[in-house]
Amino acid sequence: MKKIMVVDNEPDIVDLTRTVLEIGGYNVVPAYSGEECLKKLDEEKVDLILLDIMMPGMSGWDVFNRINKKSPEIKIVFMSVLEISDKRKQVLLDEGLADYIMKPFDKDTLLDRVDNILRD
Fold this sequence. Notes:
Layout: E1 3-7, H1 11-23, E2 27-31, H2 34-43, E3 48-52, H3 60-70, E4 75-80, H4 86-94, E5 99-102, H5 107-119
Parallel strand pairs: 1-2, 1-3, 3-4, 4-5
């Protein structure tokens, strides 16, 4: 069973995303901050991280850069309410980001995109 870490400072988002992913057959590890994410990665191996960009303390950008340097094999998807340009998205994909999912998202879209990423 593939393991996904969901990182967001909003507990409701973590809970909702976790429920959808578990229904989809995934094992989910919750984290509520960038710092907690990095700490848990020292203890657990995950296949994918769904990462909020705007969090207090350590931002998703910072977390992405740290993980990408240390463990580039871990796939990371940004989840955000911020729209970004196609050009910026392409730069992020070139830097190793697996996908960019806009919030709010519906459960089918989330599962389809996660399934596609983890199928590769």
